[in-house]
Amino acid sequence: MIFAIIAALTMVVTDVLGVVMVQAEARNRGWLAGWMDTAQWIVGITTTTITVTALQGHDMTEKVAVVVLVSAANLFGTKLGQMIGQRYVTDATTLADRVARLEALNTRIHD
Fold it and tell me: Which of 11, 28, 40, 84 is the most buried (most CB within 10 A)?
């Protein structure tokens, strides 16, 4: 059961980092996205190793626990990542830059 718990915890971290990475990419925060991608890979390969090792074993209870807990970790890790990213990943542009872009789009639409 310990492997299932560790796999689930590492899956949560993997998902949090992945969601923050996507949010950073969408906001043109390339360095942040790159660091999140790098960290996500490190944690993700750990998750994969633990999960595959447990699934190759002979303990059916451990296999079921890994599948159930890692599946739940995917769901809750993604939501947690969204909440963290929403709070900490901000646009690289200023409000004035965004307003100017919107005004330019509005001008093109009406021309």
Answer: 11
Closest CA to 14 of 63, 81, 62, 89: 81
- Contact call for residues 8 and 46 (beta carbons, < 8 A): no
**What is the distance between the alpha carbons of residues 106 and 84, in angstroms, rounded to a whole number?**
32
Structure tokens at 81: 């990542």
The two structure tokens encoding residue 97:
């830059």
Q: How do residues 24-79 score in pLDDT, each as one tens digit?
A: 999 888 999 999 999 999 999 999 999 999 999 999 999 999 999 999 999 999 99
- Tokens standing for 6? 């560790």
